[in-house]
Amino acid sequence: MDRRQFLSRSGAAVLGAGLVTRVGAASLPEAPVFTDPATQPPLAPREGRPYNPVITLNGWSLPWRMKDGVKEFHLVAEPVVRELAPGMKARLWGYNGSSPGPTIECVEGDRIRIFVTNKLPEHTAVHWHGILLPNGMDGVGGLTQPQIKPGKTFVYEFQMKKSGTFMYHPHADEMVQMAMGMMGFIVVHPKDPDFMRVDRDFVFLLNAFDIEPGAATPKVNTMLDFNLWCFNSRVFPAIDPLVCRTGDRVRIRAGNLTMTNHPLHLHGVDFEVTGTDGGWVPKSARWPEVTTDVAVGQMRAIEFIADAPGDWAFHCHKSHHTMNAMGHDVPTLIGVDQHDITERIGKLVPDYMEMGSKGMAEMGEMEMPLPDNTLPMMTGWGPFGPLEMGGMFTVVKVRDDVKPGDYRDPGWFKHPQGTVAWEWGCDAPSAERQSGPAADEHTLKARKPTGHESH
Fold this sequence. Notes:
Elements: H1 3-10, E1 13-15, H2 22-27, E2 31-33, E3 55-56, E4 65-67, E5 70-85, E6 88-95, E7 104-107, E8 111-118, E9 126-129, E10 153-159, E11 164-170, H3 174-179, E12 184-189, E13 200-209, E14 228-231, E15 242-245, E16 249-256, E17 262-266, E18 271-276, E19 279-280, E20 288-289, E21 291-294, E22 299-305, E23 310-316, H4 339-348, E24 379-382, E25 385-389, E26 393-399, H5 431-434
Parallel strand pairs: 3-13, 5-8, 7-12, 13-16, 15-26
Antiparallel strand pairs: 1-2, 4-5, 5-6, 8-10, 9-11, 11-12, 13-14, 16-22, 17-21, 17-23, 18-19, 18-20, 18-22, 23-26, 24-25
């Protein structure tokens, strides 16, 4: 899509510049606001240097305008509401209606001008993580610039010296503002569109929140014990799949702005790390991997050939990062007989359920009462039953019949005859039995009582 199509098709609202003067607001580029949590189509460049746009997983790219040879963007820092998954919304801070904010795309050699309007209740500043620029544009409040007070607009201007993948986030009250969701990606494309060219180019941030059951605002003082681990402020099963055509060369760029590292693991293929936030990795320095660790403040770009059709899991390999709404003080009850106590508690709490005496797998399919605006710890359904996942988990869907430029969910994979594991002593499942239900047949499965208000 081009910029005009984006604004008309998305229903995006166009803001002024907050509390700046009418004359000042008239000279600013538009600040589109977009709140839809679904992955948006790539934003094709309609002016300036050509490039191959990226796909922001469960996100979007920020439109721009050209003015006197400079590419101008407008970010608005503001409170936002983000749906983490159906059944749960969070009150966050972000940019232009979303958290993370929109991806900024430009080209190596571009001179860019970014207007930042502050609609937060406190001051802010924006640091352009990994970008080589003049010191006064580095965005560290109090050190390289005055803070951006509420209602004010600041301007950052610099030239992109190299291509690569970078991030933006506050450097003002950083612990609070980043814990509230303020972050975004900057993708600088190579001058030569054929350099490091891929068929599908996905980008997303790793982020985390600590939101108590029934609440909607993150606890900003949490250091490590987060309970919602996200790809771009979404948790499984609400993270969109990464749809690929068989034979595509695919790039996945992931940046980490959480408080811990994340070993990202991809099933079904070998990949190579081809980029960091310091630049591209030369071929002589790469090696095959199936897992790469992304440390705090780092970005990793991985590339692979999608040569194996199927639904391939892609997730953080820290097992507690593929769960939702975790309680860190829950005792281990494996092997504990809870029958008598369950009967006694059930007389007082009719919805009470025994759990944990045989492991936690039952959590993946049972219906249990939850406060409003809370997600099950283990959830999501696949074609063969409950997936028992949450958090940082999604699926790379590789299909022969996906058309170039098509990112729509193709549904579950239809396995060829005899290619699915089966129970010994039974007949191998037929192709019909392996096809599974439609992609949207199962979503979150949680029975939630009334009377719990989000706050």
